[in-house]
From TrEMBL:
Needed cofactors: Zn(2+)
InterPro entries: Carbonic_anhydrase (IPR001765), Carbonic_anhydrase_CS (IPR015892), Carbonic_anhydrase_sf (IPR036874)
Enzyme class of the recorded protein, top EC level: lyase
Protein name, as recorded: Carbonic anhydrase
One Pfam short name: Pro_CA
């Protein structure tokens, strides 16, 4: 398996181009499986220099290193159902930007998302789920309402809107990330993953050209 060095010096745009190229290899069944050998393991013993942080949905079909054809040490991955922001996930993202100097944050949603389906169902029926699933739904509901204001009511259109809303909310909540974007040290890319063909589509961005 080929081994590539991580590149802390990548610009946000170069980091996105690298991710996009990896996803195209995945879509076209031309994956290289980089940085997945013993030499790569040894090279990471003293630290990590990922070129992207992926904040994605926890869905089992959304394995970031696979769909972007990446390997060990390439990505700093944070996942919650419906990519809902909570204090732990926000702190993890700030750590990646402030301590690891990661040049790109990717908000990774997908079509046919179960968490978004639940939020739409609650909006339509008024029946709240049990336990902490309710907390997830309450965090996603503003995106459902924002989509409706734009005339969007289907699950996948709402999913795209939720990615966009998460992108904006992340910057609103974190002064660390907002400052890094302003200084050009990092950017945020909102991406929707298509389950049927494996394509990762850029739907919004902050700080990318």
């Amino acid at each position: 398996m080929p081994t590539e060095s991580t590149a802390r010096t990548l610009s946000p745009n170069e980091a996105w181009e690298k991710l996009h190229a990896g996803n195209l290899r995945f879509v076209n069944d031309d994956t290289e499986h980089p940085n997945q050998d013993s030499a790569r393991r040894q090279s990471l013993l003293n630290g990590q220099e990922p070129y992207a942080v992926i904040f994605g949905c926890s869905d089992s079909r959304l394995a970031a290193e696979i769909i972007f054809d990446a390997g060990l040490g390439d990505m700093f991955v944070v996942r919650t159902a419906g990519h809902v922001i909570d204090p732990a996930s926000l702190g993890s993202l700030e750590f990646a930007v402030d301590k690891l100097n990661v040049p790109l944050i990717v908000i990774l949603g997908h079509n046919n998302c179960g968490a978004i389906t639940s939020a739409i169902t609650v909006k339509e029926t008024g029946e709240m789920p049990k336990g902490f699933v309710r907390d997830l739904v309450e965090h996603i509901t503003p995106s459902v309402l924002a989509a409706e204001r734009k005339g969007i009511t289907d699950i996948n259109g709402t999913g795209v809107e939720h990615v966009k809303q998460t992108t904006d909310r992340l910057v609103d909540l974190s002064t660390i990330i907002a400052q890094a974007i302003e200084e050009g040290r990092t950017a945020v890319a909102g991406v929707t993953y298509h389950l049927h063909d494996g394509r990762a589509q850029l739907v919004s961005s902050l700080g990318l050209d």
